[in-house]
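Appendix B. Chain record.
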Amino acid sequence: MTDRPRQALVFGEIADEYDRARPSYPDELFDAVIEHGALQPGDTALEIGAGTGKATRGFSARGLAVHALEPSPGMARVLRATGVEVEETTVEAWEPPDAAFRLAFAAQAWHWVHDPKRYEKVAHALAPGGTLALFWNKGRDLPEPLRTDNDAAYDEHAPALTSAVGKWELDRTLDEIAAVDAFGAPTKRVFTWYQTYTTREWLELLGTHSDHRMLPEAQRVRLHAAVGHALNKHGGRVDVTYDAMLYLATRI
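Structure tokens predicted for this chain:
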């Protein structure tokens, strides 16, 4: 059985690598959130599972005052160094203030929150008219023939390791929000963008994925060597198409 509590915090073991390797999000996504909430510089924002600030920076750059929740001390350390106010806690342990924020957002993190009242907690912290924004980068399948060789590397060295991101059923977020009386009807927007990685950059990115971090080290080394061989066979680079999936709702 997967050790989910440890897996949720394993990123803190490689916080600096995470900050360096993980992708951010397209400017259009941040602008869409600002427009939806009619947000202005100085407005307060709550970030849930902020990590090292890959999304935090996008809203801070637009003048919002971000208060971040991040349970991992390692990740919080990197984030604090950027000047962001960080509270080291989980949503489950957090006591939400009343109507304190104009925006609450989670980037690549909401699926780690398991409090059955998670939406209600966030709604309590949002002022009426405030915005809830939940978003994820979802990478598309790798292009062929690289995909076949990459899959073969996983089949040989980590057959139990499946692409959890590829199987995410993110649209259930719409149903979850719609079931909460405190929010109006949710909407979804998708922003497609592209990034190219060298073999070294791709392997560093894989090293920040929680399912890879949970592998025994020797197995992880063998897997990454095989993946690196596959990439080098196809030119030493991989072109990735990301869909940034954004789910928005307004606090009633």
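Further analysis of this model is presented in Appendix C.
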